[in-house]
């Protein structure tokens, strides 16, 4: 089996994430996409970071209608902050017959060389990279283990969604209905 690993803070998950995941399923050999919720991105500090179990809950609601999408809380049990190479080695050890690829936005490709052991991620696993706005300036596009995914660029971000909520604006259509209703019921991000 081939699995695409989509790592993220998912604070919260939104339609941009889901569209990318579906594009990877459509355009590659992967059988499943696993959404790996990161409790703490090593390069991000956010005052409005929702508790990891709540973010996982939102992810599970968002993907429940797609059998090819799975959620993972594996990083909750690993040391923090979450370095992707450490998680990947851990996951790969537990699934020795599964082939893993990393799904990455163009924005993350630009800083990818600052990631822990990025060469190992490239050489042992490989990347599916999709555009996110302006073309990422990186020589890594030429790497043999980097495959470009064509997907519509949606300028939705979790930051924008959180700011809509704080301003009392609706987030309908930006997130799946099930995500919108849980955020409203639990008064997240207010
Ligand atoms: N609209 C989008 N289109 C394509 N990729 C996206 C989009 N939003 C997020 N991503 C990608 O999804 C992954 C996880 O992103 P993350 O959970 O941090 O969402 P975000 O919207 O970028 O969050 P924030 O605004 O809080 O920084 C990252 O690789 C990011 O590049
Ligand atoms: O491993 C690293 O050095 C590293 C550096 C920056 C980001 N990451 C991971 O990249 C993923 C995407 O982050 P985010 O917050 O943009 O969703 C998330 O799982 C982070 O832990 C990983």
From TrEMBL:
Gene3D superfamilies: HUPs. It is an enzyme of class 2 (transferase). Its EC number is 2.7.7.18. It comes from the Bacteria. It catalyses: nicotinate beta-D-ribonucleotide + ATP + H(+) = deamido-NAD(+) + diphosphate. One of its GO terms (molecular function) is nicotinate-nucleotide adenylyltransferase activity. InterPro entries: Cyt_trans-like, NadD/NMNAT, Rossmann-like_a/b/a_fold. Keywords: ATP-binding, NAD, Nucleotide-binding, Nucleotidyltransferase, Pyridine nucleotide biosynthesis, Transferase. Catalyzes the reversible adenylation of nicotinate mononucleotide (NaMN) to nicotinic acid adenine dinucleotide (NaAD). This is Probable nicotinate-nucleotide adenylyltransferase. It comes from Aquirufa novilacunae. The gene is nadD.
């Amino acid at each position: 089996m081939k699995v695409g690993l989509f790592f993220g803070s998912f604070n919260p998950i939104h339609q941009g994430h889901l569209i990318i995941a579906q594009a990877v399923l459509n355009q590659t050999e992967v059988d499943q996409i696993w959404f790996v919720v990161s409790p703490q991105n090593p390069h991000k500090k956010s005052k409005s970071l929702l508790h990891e179990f709540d973010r996982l809950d939102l992810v599970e609601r968002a993907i429940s209608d797609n059998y090819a999408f799975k959620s993972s809380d594996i990083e909750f049990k690993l040391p923090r902050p979450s370095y992707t190479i450490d998680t990947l080695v851990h996951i790969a050890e537990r699934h020795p017959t599964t082939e893993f690829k990393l799904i990455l936005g163009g924005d993350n490709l630009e800083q990818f060389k600052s990631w822990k052991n990025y060469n190992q991620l490239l050489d042992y696993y490989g990347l599916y990279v999709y555009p996110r706005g302006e073309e990422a300036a990186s020589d890594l596009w030429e790497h043999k283990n980097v495959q470009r995914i064509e997907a519509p660029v949606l300028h939705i971000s979790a930051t924008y969604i959180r700011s809509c909520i704080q301003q009392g604006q609706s987030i309908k259509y930006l997130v799946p209905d099930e995500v919108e209703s849980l955020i409203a019921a639990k008064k997240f991000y207010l």
